[in-house]
Design a protein that fits this description.
Elements: E1 3-8, H1 12-25, E2 29-34, H2 37-46, E3 51-54, H3 63-72, E4 79-83, H4 88-96, E5 101-104, H5 112-152, E6 156-160, E7 166-169, H6 171-176, H7 196-210, E8 215-222, E9 228-239, E10 245-254, H8 256-278, E11 282-286, E12 291-294, H9 296-301, H10 329-341, E13 346-353, E14 359-371, E15 374-383, H11 390-407, E16 411-416, E17 421-424, H12 426-432, H13 438-443, H14 446-453, H15 460-472, E18 478-483, E19 489-498, E20 504-513, H16 515-551, H17 559-589, E21 598-600, H18 602-620, E22 623-628, E23 635-637, H19 639-655, E24 662-670, E25 677-684, H20 716-726, E26 730-736, E27 740-748
Parallel strand pairs: 1-2, 1-3, 3-4, 4-5, 22-24
Antiparallel strand pairs: 6-7, 6-10, 8-9, 9-10, 11-12, 11-15, 13-14, 14-15, 16-17, 16-20, 18-19, 19-20, 21-23, 24-25, 25-27, 26-27
Helix pairs in contact: 2-3, 16-17, 17-20, 18-19, 19-20
Length: 754
């Protein structure tokens, strides 16, 4: 490693001698000389210096004043005194003020090796100190980051001792138990907050965790302010560096709303059962062969007083052999049942038989539904004479629609053509997390409701502008994101409601909380940084060191070592290319390449690419030719992106061309018409691509059937396509199995800016 050494001495004879000796003894020292302390300070403003060798007594600012000035400025560059006038007191003062070492100008410089060693040790120590300081700062930052995550985690994070004593709890947890501060509960037992009927189960979970297990528990608590909440906690052991369990780590979330929803569902089931039993239509639940349930109306419709007289019997028993149109009842029954189970509801007229054998006409509606994961047919049977039952059927269907609407994870709002709210589900109100006054809901006005949520939006003007635009363009669909001031992000999707005749009836809005997905994308970005820096840098060091060792080999290395170094270098290049491809593909998936366009000399880019292609072809025993037009016009493009695309095509050609084959790089321009562009192609006489694979080759991670012995990420051609499309261009492929391929990049000659 080269070291920049600065000599500060007012005696040119001595400084020249020092410079001469240092260069001779340490050729890796880069030496500069100044003759005063002030010039030293000026030199440091514009030059990097690894170590200073300074005289003590100099006119103007002496060496000690120079040292004190540097340290007062926060400059920690290693400082070594070399003086003829020093003594023990001066040496002590020098060390006290931050000098690394102290030498006298002995005649003949017999201790010159010690000076050189001192310089190298001082620089090494400074480097080590700097790295340790950065490491300490990174650790502190990491700890702060972790604490911030815990503090801002929306779910409760807590640590509990074996006796139930609370050791730590984040802000979200304190809010769950109505605590004003951690001091209020720290060091106290949490058992008292738990409703008695769940207390033993909670203690049992704690015992399990302290024995090395883990588990999940739902339980009810009463907070310090009397608030009842249902919680779900997942508990695991927290271990120290000696693998000893020191605490129970619990992640707890508030499931009160879920419990309330479950209770509401049970109430809904009771109401459904009440409706089921009180309906004026006959309602039947049928499996593939028999009735499993029905209401009393259905039983009475067929002449039975008790539904148990019907349950378990085949529905085929309640039809005549033939229908009035001559069709076989059993065959028609089985056909329609099969259609219903395949997802096609059926509505039809039918002739049935009562208990006494008398026929009667009914209207039947069949639908498939799932109960506990099993498919059933729901049959609604109506006596055609009782058309007044149509209203009850409509009410039943509306109930099913409401249940479906309430079961979705999306917030749903439906407005009519005039902006009046037709309906909304409970999730639509919950997802905002804000109180919506009942009087606002009662107005059914979309405009008034919007005013309630605007203060919570990060960009309210943009929000209202988009809403107004969509109401003014009723045929448009739209999908975008909404940012809230509290950091949450919603996906917003809307589509018009149109009838079969094309009439516009209104608009449906869907909202989904995608905050967690956005956080995962942020973590993905962090992983990208690891690929870019933490993995790429050491890989570059490995590849560089292997290359340096091969370059400086004077014949002293054995053939095995040389082969090993060559393998290391080649493997490092392959891995580096894989990492680069992954980083580029991540950028593509995260919103595109965003090319930094500039005026590009295409000929120079292709010349640089040719150097890489020549090496690739030579290493595999291939012939490389080129046919590049000399009059290529400049291209407004991202130079590095174009270079990457061309080298990717070349690498692909090398991979699929056997030794002895030929690769051709060509480029020409087409100008004078409306579609002016530059055409860059790479051709080979390799294995070619089967016709049924050609549409897939530009898909990421696609591997050809011929790629069994070809190493690579499967991203090269996908990146080529992305580069072309990011520049408004396209990719083309001509290939025939067994005869080779020609891949082309066609880039438009857009006008230069300015």
């Amino acid at each position: 490693m080269d070291l920049n050494v600065l000599i500060v001495d007012d005696e040119p004879v001595f400084s020249d001698l020092m410079k001469l000796r240092l260069r001779k003894e340490s050729p890796h020292f880069s030496i500069s000389v100044v003759d005063s302390g002030m010039k030293c300070l000026e030199h440091l403003k514009s030059n990097h210096v690894d170590c200073i060798l300074s005289d003590f007594q100099m006119p103007g600012m002496d060496g000690m004043e120079l040292l004190k000035t540097l340290r007062s400025q926060g400059n920690t560059v290693p400082f070594i005194f070399i003086t003829a006038q020093g003594n023990e007191a001066v040496a002590r003062d020098a060390f006290k003020n931050g000098a690394y070492d102290y030498f006298t100008k002995d005649i003949g410089f017999a201790h010159f090796t010690r000076i050189i060693n001192s310089v190298e040790q001082a620089v090494a120590k400074r480097t080590s100190d700097t790295e340790r300081r950065r490491s300490d700062e990174a650790l502190r930052a990491s700890q702060k980051y972790l604490q911030t995550i815990i503090d801002t985690e929306p779910e409760c994070v807590k640590l509990i001792a074996a006796d139930g004593t609370l050791l730590m709890m984040n802000r979200a947890g304190l809010e769950m138990i109505d605590a004003d501060s951690l001091d209020q509960v720290k060091g106290k037992s949490v058992y008292g907050l738990i409703v008695p009927e769940y207390r033993e189960a909670f203690k049992a979970l704690g015992d399990k965790v302290f024995q090395g297990g883990s588990g999940t528990l739902e339980f009810e608590i009463v907070g310090f302010k009397g608030t009842h909440r249902w919680l779900e906690t997942h508990a695991v052991p927290l271990r120290n560096e000696r693998d000893q369990i020191t605490a129970l780590l619990g992640i707890t979330r508030d499931i009160t709303e879920r419990k309330q929803a479950e209770e509401a569902l049970r109430d809904s089931e009771k109401r459904f059962h009440a409706i089921f039993e009180s309906a004026e239509d006959g309602i039947f639940l049928v499996n593939e062969s028999a009735f499993v349930d029905c209401n009393l109306k259905g039983a009475m419709m067929y002449g039975y007083k008790d539904k148990n007289e019907i349950l378990g019997r085949s529905y085929l028993e309640f039809s005549p052999q033939l229908q009035p149109d001559g069709k076989n009842s059993e065959e028609e029954n089985r056909r329609m049942v099969a259609l219903v189970f395949s997802g096609e509801p059926q509505n039809f007229y039918w002739q049935s038989l009562r208990r006494d054998g008398s026929p009667f006409d009914v209207e039947v509606s069949l639908n498939c539904l799932y109960l506990k994961g099993n498919p059933y047919i729901q049959a609604i049977v109506r006596d055609i004479a009782a058309r007044k039952q149509a209203e009850e059927e409509l009410k039943y269907k509306n109930m099913l629609l409401t249940a479906q609407q309430e079961a979705t994870v999306d917030g749903i709002l439906v407005v009519d053509a005039n902006g009046k709210i037709i309906s909304y589900n409970r999730r639509f109100l919950e997802i905002w997390g804000i109180p919506v006054p009942q009087e606002v809901l009662d107005t059914r006005s979309d405009e008034i409701a919007i005013q309630v949520v605007l203060p919570y939006l990060k960009n309210p003007e943009e929000f209202i502008e988009r809403v107004n635009y969509l109401y003014e363009h009723p045929t448009d669909t739209s999908k975008d994101e909404i940012q809230l001031k509290d950091g949450r992000t919603f996906d917003r999707y809307t589509a018009p409601m149109r009838g079969a005749d094309g009439m516009y009836y209104g608009r449906v809005w869907y909202l989904r909380d995608v905050t967690e997905r956005k956080n995962l994308e942020s973590q993905k970005e962090h992983l990208l940084e690891i690929l870019r820096h933490d993995m790429k840098t050491p890989l570059s060091v490995i590849m560089g060191n292997a290359e340096l060792a091969l370059m400086e080999n004077d014949g002293s290395l054995s053939e095995d070592i040389v082969n090993t170094l060559q393998s290391i270098h080649a493997s490092s290049k392959v891995l580096s290319k894989l990492l680069d491809d992954q980083v580029v593909m991540f950028n593509i998936e995260s919103g595109g390449l965003n090319p930094c366009k500039e005026k590009v000399d295409v000929g120079e880019v292709l010349t640089e690419a040719s150097l890489c292609i020549v090496n690739l072809a030579r290493n595999k025993g291939l012939t490389f030719d080129q046919n590049i037009a000399t009059d290529l016009p400049p291209l407004f493009a991202d130079r590095l992106h174009v270079l990457r695309a061309v080298t990717n095509l070349a690498q692909n050609a090398v991979n699929y061309t056997p030794a002895g084959g030929r690769i051709m790089l060509s480029a020409w321009s087409e100008t004078g018409g409306e579609d002016e562009h530059i055409h860059i192609s790479v051709s080979d006489d390799g294995t070619g691509i089967p016709a049924d694979e050609q549409e897939k080759v530009f898909e990421k991670y696609h591997r050809s059937a011929n790629a069994k012995n070809v190493k690579g990420s499967g991203l090269g051609l996908a990146i080529v396509k992305a580069v072309a499309e990011a520049h408004g261009g396209r990719v083309e492929l001509q290939s025939e199995a067994g005869k080779g391929s020609t891949f082309s990049i066609v880039l438009p000659l857009t006008p230069m800016p300015g």
